[in-house]
Amino acid sequence: MDAILESRLSYELRMLNDARSKYSNQLKMLKQFDNHNLKMDTSKYGHNYYSAKKKSAKRFGYVGTAEHETVRGIMEVHHLKEAIKQLDNNIKLIKNLRDGYVPCDLLTIDNLLPKAYRNCLPLIDDKYHVVGKKWKADKLKFQANFPENFPGFKTHQTLDKTLVKSVSEVNLYNTLLLAGLIFVYELPLASKDYGPPFYPDFTILSPVDLKTEIIVEYVGRLDMKSYREDFADRIYRYMRNGYIPGVNLFFVFADLDGNVDSLQISKVIADIKGLR
Q1: DSSP string, 108-163
Q2: Three-state SS for 1?
Q3: For residue 30, how far is the Cα from the chain centroid?
Q4: 204 contacts: CB under 8 Å, gap ≥ 6
Q5: What is the enclosing helix (H) or strand (E) of 71?
Q6: How far apart are CA 129 and CA 217, in angstroms?
Q7: Contact 208, 136 (CB under 8 A)
């Protein structure tokens, strides 16, 4: 399971169990009002009047308005029991999700299929996967010759266990992976202007001609002046190295809250696949 999702589920379970424990303790303090039924007799001048009885009794006896201690107690017991019931349902749902979670990567899904339907995924554009497997192996060997780019910032795990730097990069990485694209994260790019090497976020082998290398950059902090200036410089350097926006260079922009529209990613993938 993705580390972020697992952490989130554990947090939710802890909050739900804490709430359940709190409500259970409150219920114990009201045990004298348990096993009672309540009914409203009349409503006059803005006040409701109630009768109550033990569940084992045959008749209701008049108690008073909603301000009466017995009425309030029976009502609170009813609400606490209903709250605990809903908490138990939510706890069960999250435990089932956690215990029965299945990663949505292509290989896992393929292995879950009946035998008659397995191995069909690699057959879809099989040449791309054959060529891409060798391309990626060569690129990973090349990548090993360079120092890793800020490894201390890579704290978020993707579906194939790659560590990246942000939740948005996780989402982008996983979407590219599930789209069947073959790519390398932060593959160094030696610059023709003799400047320091680039570390593009994603370098993708084109599924159209099986040789063009396409770069996708996640752009997340345009609210910062220094980031904007660095971004402008990177575009200039990319173009000096033969990368043209909208051709073999694409950007995925976050809004000012750091969120990325999934439709934006889908359009970039469609462009890479030559579908638009």
Answers
A1: HHHHHS-GGGTT-TTTTTHHHHHHHHHHHHHHHHHHTTS--SSGGG--EE-TTS-E
A2: coil
A3: 41
A4: 176, 181, 182, 183, 213, 214, 215, 216, 272
A5: helix 69-99
A6: 23
A7: no
Q: Which residues lie across from 38 on neighbouring strands?
A: 52
**Residue 258 near residue 168, CB atoms below 8 Å:** yes
Q: Which amino acid is at 119?
A: N
Q: Is residue 250 classed exposed, middle or buried when 0-12, 13-18 and 19+ CB atoms within 10 A define those classes?
A: buried
Residue 54, classed as helix, strand or coil, is strand
- Which pLDDT score is estimated for 194? 66
Cα–Cα distance, 164 to 173 (Å, whole number): 9
DSSP percent split of the chain into helix, strand, coil, nearest 5: 45, 15, 35
Tokens of 219: 């752009």
Mean pLDDT of successive 10-residue stretches along the chain, which has 276 residues: 74 92 94 90 82 90 89 92 94 89 68 73 67 94 92 91 90 90 93 78 93 93 87 89 92 83 86 80
DSSP string of 238-275, one letter each residue: HHHTT--BTTTEEEEE--TTS---HHHHHHHHHHHTT-
pTM, two decimals, is: 0.55
d(CA 49, CA 46): 10
The token duo for 70 is 């017995």
Q: What is the pLDDT of residue 5?
A: 73
Q: Which two tokens stand for residue 52?
A: 């109550």
State the Cα–Cα distance between residues 124 and 111, nearest whole angstrom. 16
What is the rounded CA–CA span in Å between residue 6 and residue 64? 50
Alpha-carbon distances of 244 from 53, 130, 143, 236, 240, rounded to whole Å = 79, 27, 23, 10, 9
